[in-house]
Amino acid sequence: MSIFERYLTLWVALCIVAGVALGHVMPGFFGAIAAAEVAKVNLPVAVLIWLMIVPMLLKIDFGALGQVREHWRGVGVTLFINWAVKPFSMALLGSFFIGHVFAPLLPAGQISSYIAGLILLAAAPCTAMVFVWSNLCEGEPHYTLSQVALNDVIMVFLFAPLVGLLLGVASITVPWDTLLLSVVLYIVVPVAVAQLWRSALLRTGGGAFERTMRTLQPLSLVALLATLVLLFGFQGEQIVRQPAVIAILAVPILIQVYLNAGLAYWLSRRFGVAWCVAAPAALIGASNFFELAVAAAISLFGLESGAALATVVGVLVEVPVMLSVVRIVKATRAWYEAGTAESKPAMEARQ
Hints:
Layout: H1 3-6, H2 8-25, H3 27-35, E1 37-38, E2 41-42, H4 43-57, H5 72-101, H6 111-122, H7 129-136, H8 141-169, H9 176-203, H10 206-241, H11 244-270, H12 275-286, H13 290-301, H14 306-331, H15 333-350
Helix pairs in contact: 2-10, 2-14, 4-9, 4-10, 4-13, 5-6, 5-8, 5-11, 5-12, 6-13, 6-14, 7-8, 8-9, 8-12, 9-10, 9-13, 10-14, 11-12, 11-14, 12-14, 13-14
């Protein structure tokens, strides 16, 4: 993990300070950025989002989908968590904590927007940082690559219907045209561009691909931080007025991460999945594609919305929380492997 990635939470905290300060000092500048829209798409933010997403998608090799069969139990567990548990558990946690427990402490007009942001955060599994987490916990690289590639394919088809369903259940108006446009702009097109670019680079040799990745990775992180400065520039007044809102939004995110990581890890143990697959399975099950969530929240609800702020809180807690999950799965390896060793005879007997 690079220094930039390791201290991402610190950089996000600095972006909060910088954004809030600049929002007060340069309101005209931020107003001009907010006005630069075409078909409800903010152009400066769209460019930054692309700079974030495309370098990450360049890492994905869809040829790895052929390796899914090799780790089918681990893949099955992660698919179940990512698509059948995580989005729904976040919708429940968001409605409970934001809509009820902490509602008196939050601006009434933003509560549904906060819940929408949390749903967007949980509706897409991580596609980039998970490679870092998998490497840190000595995860099986072929499993991680094939799982991420499969999630990317599923995301193209399921993200919009899943978000629309959960927002509708939460009684939040779903702007379907904007939602579908977000899927095209921030999933379909970046995936296509990244894969075409990846193929062209690999045809010229692996060295060209590696050099491109080294060049783009810092640019991707700088684009993320620039986007956060813009978001906090627009959110500054609300944050100054109610600074506790960030801590409140972090509560359901933290619970959701540990809940889904723990469930993925436990199910993997029950099904006799090797630890080198179960460890990244827990991390993939818990982490979020926060870049996509930020982009979708801005497109659907605007730069100044509670939804955009909620997705940014996900960025704020991502690194320390996921590092803690890495430590937990590594510390429990002996316990995990003892359980899978006991379960194998029973599984073989059933087969």
